[in-house]
Design goal:
Blueprint (H helix, E strand, L loop, with lengths): L1 H35 L3 H14 L5 E4 L2 H4 L4 H8 L3 E3 L7 H11 L7 E5 L24 H12 L6 H10 L3 H8 L2 H4 L8 H7 L38 H15 L3 E6 L6 H17 L3 E3 L21 H17 L14 H17 L4 H8 L4 E7 L9 H11 L13 E5 L7 E4 L2 E7 L4 E6 L4 E6 L18 H4 L4 E7 L5 E6 L1
Parallel strand pairs: 1-2, 1-3, 3-4, 4-5
Antiparallel strand pairs: 6-7, 6-12, 7-8, 9-10, 10-11, 12-13
Helix pairs in contact: 1-10, 4-13, 4-14, 5-7, 5-11, 11-12, 14-15, 15-16
């Protein structure tokens, strides 16, 4: 009996030791997994889990980069008090969007889900069996899998995530890669940064843009295309149409109102047909839908696009504003006076800060002028004599939009142009050709400007008589002795408190 007791004690000791070892091993593997995985998906979704668990998300947006670049939840809150999160993911086909939603519903149940109809024509069943031509311009098979990681990695391992992986991928190796990211990222040790360690313990830097990603550049080569009739859809059924219907059914099952939208862009006939078909399917299902492609003059092919199919930051601003009005009509609640939502003001502040950074980092005049259209900024824009910019219809149109004044002059070589955007003081102005302007008062500076055949002098003075921006010894903000070769100089001020923000020279 003593021997049996001893054997039994030894058995339980070994069992306990094995259990503790496995527990420690699991913890170590879990930590290594959190440490080594790429953090893009986690940074992008961190605030979704925070706000979703708190019950502070009334709407979700699904789609790919078309939606991710096109709708800004922080703007929706600032303008309408609507709380939402953009769960769109770059390259996400509608089967990926379906599983993003199904995993997201484990965290919260929104009142509305907005689904973009882009990619409805995609007919790919498994993402790891893409044809050589994936159906997306410039996309490779490897890129498609990488983007799928961005879509799914942030969701914890669960029965729902397992179902997603088995539905989206055919190969055993790919399924292992998505269920156990450590399997993919175990060689990332040399790439780790301090933020990887902070993220692993829950203290890393996360995105405050509520899932959206704004494009602070433009594509001046994007071309306007002719719209086909709104009732012209696709003739065939695709994997995309099947999963759009599954998204609609899932929403209705959960008591969520699904809304199918088509964001505006100058698409090809095939792309327009796909978007139109999404709207036709929504109408057939008897659910709300809106095709913003058919809103007159909503989008301009120049400043509102960063590519032929993606909106620029200002294009997204206009689209979000219009969509917000529709959301308001659908009965979405305004939370701006609710103390429980006061923290959402930090996301609004982050949006304005991101705009400032986007303007400061502008790489060309056209992108800078696009950013100046935001109400955040006042500015003085100088175009030097001899510049090709004075002969660009696009540039002149942008400058006209800033001031509300026509730019219909015929520039000669010796002509320069100064444009003042002053929202607060309502002193918008343009000075073309030879000028001698003294001490014009705006809301942000006292302005004097002299332009002759071979000389330009601009003074931007504060109340104390000192220059508000970097200037030469004579107070010339254009620093014409050393910077006469610059085609354009832009002096930017905060439209709210009138402080100088930055100077851009091109």
């Amino acid at each position: 009996s003593f021997k049996m007791d001893l054997l039994q004690k030894n058995f339980w000791k070994r069992a306990l030791s094995l259990f503790l070892f496995l527990l420690l091993l699991s913890g170590a593997l879990l930590f290594c997994n959190r440490l080594l995985v790429r953090k893009d998906s986690y940074r992008d979704r961190a605030l979704f889990f925070k706000e979703g668990k708190a019950g502070r998300i009334d709407a979700l947006f699904l789609g790919n980069s078309h939606m991710k670049n096109g709708v800004n939840p922080a703007q929706l809150y600032e303008e309408y008090g609507i709380t939402s999160y953009n769960l769109a993911s770059k390259g996400a086909r509608l089967n990926v969007s379906y599983w993003i939603l199904k995993n997201a519903l484990r965290t919260c149940t929104p009142k509305f889900v907005f689904i973009d109809g882009y990619y409805l024509d995609q007919d790919v069943r498994y993402l790891d069996q893409l044809p050589k031509d994936t159906g997306v311009e410039g996309e490779t098979k490897q890129q498609a899998l990488g983007l799928a990681h961005d879509a799914l990695d942030a969701f914890r391992l669960s029965k729902t995530k397992q179902e997603a992986v088995f539905d989206l991928f055919k190969k055993k190796k790919t399924r292992q890669e998505f269920l156990f990211p450590f399997y993919t990222y175990h060689n990332r040790w040399k790439q780790l940064t301090a933020d990887d360690y902070r993220m692993a313990v829950g203290h890393g830097e996360v995105s405050k843009s509520l899932g959206a990603e704004m494009n602070f550049k433009i594509d001046v080569e994007a071309q306007k295309t002719d719209l086909i009739p709104a009732e012209a859809g696709m003739e065939k059924e695709t994997v995309g149409t099947q999963y759009l219907q599954k998204i609609i059914a899932l929403c209705l099952e959960k008591g969520i109102t699904p809304v199918v939208v088509q964001l505006p862009f100058p698409g090809t006939e095939e792309q327009q047909r796909a978007g139109n078909q999404a709207i036709l399917l929504a109408k057939k299902a008897g659910i709300p839908c809106v095709n913003l492609n058919y809103v007159p003059n909503l989008i301009q092919a120049g400043s509102d696009l960063c590519s032929q199919t993606h909106l620029s930051a200002y294009g997204a601003y206009k689209t979000t504003h219009d969509l917000g009005g529709i959301m308001q009509q659908l009965g979405m609640k305004d939370h701006r006076k609710d103390e429980a939502y006061a923290g959402w003001n930090t996301y609004v502040d982050a949006m304005h800060e991101e705009r400032r950074e986007g303007l400061e980092q502008a790489k060309d005049v056209r992108s800078a002028l696009m950013m100046l259209r935001f109400d955040d900024f006042d500015a003085v824009v100088f175009i030097n004599h001899g510049s090709r910019l004075l002969h660009s219809p696009y540039i002149l149109s942008e400058l006209s939009d800033l001031t509300g004044k026509p730019m219909d002059f015929d520039a000669q070589y010796d002509d320069s142009l100064l444009v003042v955007k002053d929202q607060g003081g309502k002193q918008n102005a343009s000075y073309f050709g030879f000028q001698d302007v003294e001490k014009v008062k705006s809301s942000f500076a006292k302005l004097s400007y002299l332009s002759t055949k071979d000389w330009n002098n601009l003074q931007l003075l504060g109340a104390d008589g000192n220059s508000l921006v970097d200037a030469d010894g004579e107070g010339n903000a254009l620093q014409y002795y050393t910077l006469a070769d610059k085609e354009a100089q832009i002096f930017v001020f905060d439209a709210r408190d009138h402080r100088p923000l930055c100077t851009l020279r091109f």
